[in-house]
Amino acid sequence: MSIAILPIGLISLVQNLHLSREAERSAEIALLGRTASAAAGERALLQSALGAADALGPAILESAGQPGMCSDLLRNFVQRSGTYRHAAFVPVDGRVECSSAGPDDPQLDLSNSDMVREFMQNPMTAVTAMAQGPVSREPVVVVLQPLYRDREFLGLTALSLTQELLRSTHAMDFGTEGARILTFNNSGRVLIADTSQGDDPAQLLPRDVPLVSLPGQGEATFRTRANSGEMRVFTVVPVVPGLVYALGSWSPSIAGVGLFQLSRFGAVMLPVALWVVSLAVAYFAVFRLVLRHITVLRGQMRRFAIGNRDSPPPVLADAPTEIADVSQTFHNMARILIRDEEAMEQAVAEKTVLLKEVHHRVKNNLQLIASIINMQSRLIDDRDAKRVLRSVQDRVAALATIYRNLYQAEQLDQVYADRLITDIIAQLTTASASAGRHLQVQTDIQPLTMLPDQAVPLTLLTTEAFTNAMKYAGNPADGGDPWVRVSLTSPTPGQGLLEVVNSTGPDEAAGGTGLGSQLIEAFSMQLEGDVTTNSQPGAYRLALTFRLGQAGSAGGNSPRQVVLTSAARAGSRH
Q: From CA 135, how far away is CA 464, in angstroms rounded?
């Protein structure tokens, strides 16, 4: 039914639009006629002025060289006409000696006038406006005619009319309240504008449409916003072809545009409304049979996709056969997926428990080894041997701390390095305090997530660096207890920075086997980092810069392999 009605509606639409366009065109022609009628009086005055300026040319030529005679001629002409405000002959140099001004008036010098210089450079018949006439001191419209002798350009014949006289000729018909008429020349300069006292004529002009572009269009009608912001209809008609044009500014209610737009709207909407009604009937029929079942099935699929998988979605009842088959297939697929996901989740949970149990047992074994080393150190009286066993015990305890954090972590592929480093420092600081040494430890550990492959060598490197810092921390020169500062930060995304700084004193004694330095170098190579050391006034600084790995990245060894590799490198250099 909708397809059958569509051609009839289209035919009606085309016919109605055609009639609407014809009515709108008739309205535009009527507006052009009103504009031309309103400017008819101004057209007569300007054409008369152009003819008079052209007729004065031969008389001015005959009185050339006799300024008094020429001025009398122009003065008599202005007095007899009663229309013109002033007449003058402007020679090329701009010094006016022949004008209708009285003998008591000063001689005019227009050599510095931009308008005069412009017309002298490009002499042609023109009509322009001046806000203040040089003689009358009133707003005037000036008609200019070039004057030649043979082919020699002598100057311009100028006749001026008051703008008030020209404005008074604008006549609007009954029922055109709010309409405005404005005239402008071919250069886009406004000559006369129908405005109230103190109003700006620019408010009547169309926005973003320069006047200089309108003369080339001939008679034209267009609709746009005026500079005042009001939507208006504009008409353009020639007053003096090629020289002066009239611009009519009409409100849409006067122009009848709103009525034509309404009729066009009705011409379009009636067929469209009929077609929409037919579509609505078809839609409700299709919705009852198909769309409502598809909507329910789509909702089931969306809920299943976002994780609502407690039970398979039910098969749609009272649905057409094809949709019922799709619903049954989706039900079977969802049931199989739920079963497989449950099996996979159970397998992952079992593997996670087993891996955490491995980490737990490794931690227990390492703690047992550390306890055995501690027991063995108590049976030895040699201080160097005790120191060596103590360093080995600290390293084993650090490994135990790593595996304790691994089996306690919620995600096995991520390790919180800040917790690891904090535990290691607390453990070593407690051991130092139990030895009776007064040492100030300051930490700045920022939250940092790492891969287990990186956390293990970083923790062992921190253990070695912190142990060396505590071992060689000296009393500051200005007094006070020795101190150690440890910081772990991320200066830029994807980069980590570990800094260990200890105080030094004048009585600091260098020593040691160098094993700690070898281990630090080995662990930094495992991290693919860069270790730098430098001595500062009263302090010694070790800095490690390394790149942070991302979870799920390929490559890398397990934590145990990292330790064995690092230990092997250190042993080969020892």
A: 103
Under the banding of pLDDT at 50, 70 and 90, the label for residue 6 is low
The residue type found at 438 is: H
User: Contact 143/158 with Cβ under 8 angstroms?
Assistant: yes
**Per DSSP, what are the bridge partners of residue 442?**
485
Question: What pLDDT score does 168 carry?
Answer: 83
Q: Residue 4 burial by CB count (10 A; 0-12/13-18/19+): exposed, middle or buried?
A: exposed
Give the whole-angstrom CA distance, residue 147 versus residue 63.
13
pTM: 0.44
Q: Report whether 468 contacts 460 (CB < 8 A).
A: no
Pairing state between β 440-445 and 483-489: parallel
Identify any residues that bridge with 158 across adjacent strands, giving them in sequence order.
88, 144
pLDDT of 561 reads 40
The order of strands in the sheet holding 231-240 is: 190-193, 180-185, 244-250, 231-240, 220-225
Range 260-264 contact pairs with CB under 8 angstroms and sequence separation of 24 or more: 260/20, 260/23, 260/24, 260/27, 263/20, 263/23, 264/16, 264/17, 264/20, 264/24
Instruction: For residue 480, report the phi and psi dihedrals to the nearest 5 degrees.
Output: 100, 175
Spell out the residues 6+ positions from residue 466 whose beta carbon is closer than 8 angstroms to its own: 424, 425, 428, 484, 486, 500
Partner residues linked to 443 by β-bridges: 486
Distances (CA, A) of 53 to 86, 101, 111, 159: 12, 17, 21, 7
